[in-house]
Amino acid sequence: MIGRLNHVAIAVKDLESASATYRDTLGAKVLPPQDEPDHGVTVVFIELPNTKIELLTPLGENSPIAAFLDKNPAGGIHHVCYEVDDIIAARDHLKAEGARVLGDGEPKIGAHGKPVLFLHPKDFCGTLVELEQA
Question: Superfamily assignment of 2-133 in CATH?
Fold first, then answer.
């Protein structure tokens, strides 16, 4: 059901500093920041030959990333994102298998302009999983 790894998301307090680390120290291609108000984050994508890294920082005081950073002040891996061909079919299959879909269970449009869903970390080895329709 799952396809390729789309990205690994890393929560950071200082988006400019984290971007500079990837750009200047690691020599990666760093895209400009983009606000995602529906998700309460500002993101920067780092393009790699085989996948992406998503740096995310809180956008607004109700951001779920703010709570993550309160618990993990140095930042850290927040989630992994896998591609699926059909997000509704994937959601229905996962729910039938007992997996918990976060939120209201309906896809939202993500940072790439495609439908996304998040799955409860307790159902996936302690890892928050994002599914993105390819």
Answer: 2,3-Dihydroxybiphenyl 1,2-Dioxygenase, domain 1 (3.10.180.10)
